[in-house]
Design a protein that fits this description.
This protein has 427 residues and is an alpha/beta fold. The protein has helices at 17-28, 41-44, 92-108, 129-142, 162-176, 197-215, 232-243, 266-276, 333-341, 349-352, 355-369, 375-400, 404-423, and strands at residues 48-57, 63-74, 80-87, 115-121, 152-156, 224-228, 247-253, 256-259, 286-288, 298-303, 320-324, 345-347. Among the domains are: 48-187, Rossmann fold, CATH 3.40.50.10860; 200-352, Rossmann fold (3-Layer(aba) Sandwich). β11, α9 and β12 form a beta-alpha-beta unit. α3 packs across α13 (404-423), α6 (197-215) runs parallel beside α12 (375-400) and α11 packs across α12 (375-400). The chain starts with 16 loop residues before the first helix and ends with a helix.
C-alpha cells in the first residue's frame, strides 16, 4: 500500500474521535446476539452531556473563561466512571468518545460501572498552581449535579493527578457538608486513595502485553519496547517492562524522542523529564527524529499518549510485533486494518489500559467499607482480572476469527446491552 509520508504524530484524519467510536460500534453490531440489536442505538447516543463555562481569576487579576465537559455515555451497568482530562485540544467529540470507551472498558473487565468522562479545554502548563486549583474547583462545582459516589465517579486522566482529585473531592464535600471520599478515585493515600492506583494502568498494560507475548511465543526477557507518552501510563508501563527484563529502547513525549539500543534507564529518564521539562539531553540517550520512532523494529509498541497516533500515515511502517494500547483510541480504524494485514497484534485500549479503572474500582470499594487493602492484595487482584479478561477475549477472538478489538467490543457491548435490555424502557 502506498502511504503518504506525513508527520505521524499529528493526526490528519478528518474524522473526530466520536466518529471513530461510532465506526467501532458499527463494526461490532452485526457480531452481537440478534436479541441485542434493538438496543445498539443506545451506544450511539450518550445518555447525557454537559458543557460548562469555567471562569477563573488569573494571578494578574484578569478573569479568563475555559470550556469544560462531563459526559455520561451509558449507566446501564452502574454509576458513570471515567477520568477528567485537561488539555488544550479537548473537544466534546473527544470527551464523548472517551466516555464511550469507558462504557466498553468497564464492561470488559466487568467492574460495576457505566462509562463517563470529563475534560477542560485548557493548557495546564500555562496555569500557576493556584490557578489550576481555582479551575478544578469551579469545574467540579459546575458539574456537581452530575457526579457523586453512586452517580458518577471521576478520576485522573491526561494532565490531572492525585492533587487535582483531592481538590475535586474537597469541593464536592463542601457542597454536601460532609467528607465524601468516594466521589472521585485516584486520590492521595492520605484521603482514601488506594495503594497501587498510581501504577495500575501501566501494570495492566504490562500484564496484557505479557499474556499476548505468551500466546505468540515472544519472550519478555530482552524484548525491545518503544513507548509513546511518558506521563503516568507511559512511564509506569516502561518501568514495569524494564523491571521484567525487557529493553525499553525509545521513549517519545511532546518534547521529542530519545533512544538507546541497550535500553533506557526509565527511573533516571523520568527524573530528568520532571526536572528539565524535556527528554532531550537526558544522559545516556540519543535524540532521534519523532517520525523515526514509528519505524523502530521492536517486539512491543506502547502508545500511551493521545488518540489517533497510529494512523494511515505510519501504520505501514510500524515494525512492532505487538501493539499494546496504553492510551485511549490511539489507533484509527484505517490503521487497525493495515496492522491486521501486516500480522501485527493489537491489544486494544478497552482491555490494555483497563488496569487504572480496575484499581479505581478497588479504591471506591475500600472507601465505602473504610477498610483498606495491602498493595500485594491489590496487585494480585489486578493481575487476576487483567489476565482473565485477556484470556476470555483471546479465546473469543480465536473461536470467531476476530481481532482482539472486535472480541473485546463483543464482550463489552454484550454485557452493556444485556443489562440495558433487562432493565427495559422507562416509563
Ligand atoms: N482515565 C483512566 C482511563 O481512561 C482511568 C479512569 C478511572 O479510573 O475512572 O481509563
Amino acid at each position: 500500500m502506498n502511504t503518504p509520508q506525513l508527520p505521524s504524530y499529528i493526526s490528519r484524519e478528518n474524522i473526530g474521535p466520536w466518529q471513530i467510536f461510532l465506526q467501532q460500534v458499527e463494526q461490532v453490531a452485526p457480531l452481537l446476539d440478534k436479541a441485542l440489536w434493538p438496543w445498539v442505538e443506545t451506544l450511539r447516543r450518550p445518555k447525557r452531556s454537559l458543557i460548562v463555562d469555567v471562569p477563573i481569576r488569573r494571578d494578574n487579576g484578569e478573569v479568563e473563561h475555559f470550556e469544560g465537559y462531563r459526559v455520561h455515555h451509558n449507566t446501564s451497568r452502574g454509576p458513570g466512571k471515567g477520568g477528567v482530562r485537561f488539555h488544550q485540544d479537548v473537544t466534546l467529540s473527544e470527551v464523548m468518545a472517551l466516555a464511550g470507551w469507558m462504557t466498553i472498558k468497564n464492561a470488559v473487565v466487568n467492574v460495576p460501572f457505566g462509562g463517563a468522562k470529563g475534560g477542560i479545554r485548557v493548557d495546564p502548563r500555562q496555569l500557576s498552581l493556584s490557578e489550576l486549583e481555582g479551575l478544578t474547583r469551579r469545574y467540579t462545582s459546575e458539574i456537581s449535579s452530575m457526579i457523586g459516589p453512586d452517580k458518577d465517579i471521576p478520576a485522573p486522566d491526561m494532565n490531572t493527578n492525585a492533587q487535582v482529585m483531592a481538590w475535586m473531592m474537597d469541593t464536592y464535600s463542601m457542597g454536601e457538608g460532609r467528607t465524601v471520599t468516594g466521589v472521585v478515585t485516584g486520590k492521595p493515600l492520605s484521603l482514601g486513595g488506594s495503594l497501587g492506583r498510581q501504577d495500575a494502568t501501566g501494570r495492566g498494560v504490562f500484564v496484557t502485553a505479557r499474556e499476548a507475548a505468551r500466546k505468540l511465543d515472544v519472550p519478555i526477557e530482552g524484548a525491545q519496547v518503544i513507548v509513546q507518552g511518558f506521563g503516568n501510563v507511559g512511564e509506569a508501563s516502561a518501568r514495569i517492562f524494564a523491571q521484567a527484563g525487557a529493553r525499553v529502547i525509545a521513549v517519545q513525549d511532546v518534547s521529542g524522542t530519545v533512544f538507546n539500543a541497550a535500553g533506557l534507564d526509565i527511573v533516571a529518564l523520568k527524573r530528568y523529564q520532571l526536572e528539565n521539562k524535556t527528554l532531550a539531553g537526558a544522559p545516556g540517550c540519543e535524540v532521534i527524529d519523532n517520525d523515526a520512532f514509528w519505524s523502530l523494529p521492536c517486539e512491543f509498541l506502547v502508545p500511551a499518549a493521545l488518540e489517533s497516533q497510529i494512523n494511515r500515515y505510519n501504520a505501514e511502517r510500524i515494525a512492532a510485533r505487538i501493539v499494546v494500547e496504553g492510551a485511549n483510541g490511539p489507533t484509527t480504524p484505517e490503521a487497525d486494518v493495515i496492522l491486521a494485514e501486516r500480522g501485527i497484534v493489537v491489544v486494544p485500549d478497552v482491555l490494555a489500559n483497563a488496569g487504572g479503572v480496575t484499581v479505581s474500582y478497588f479504591e471506591w470499594v475500600q472507601d465505602f467499607s473504610s477498610f483498606f487493602w495491602s498493595e500485594d492484595e491489590i496487585n494480585a487482584r489486578l493481575e487476576r482480572i487483567m489476565s482473565e479478561s485477556f484470556n476470555a477475549i483471546w479465546q473469543l477472538a480465536e473461536q470467531r476469527r476476530l481481532s482482539l478489538r472486535s472480541a473485546a467490543f463483543v464482550i463489552g457491548c454484550s454485557r452493556v446491552l444485556e443489562a440495558r435490555a433487562t432493565r427495559g424502557l422507562y416509563p
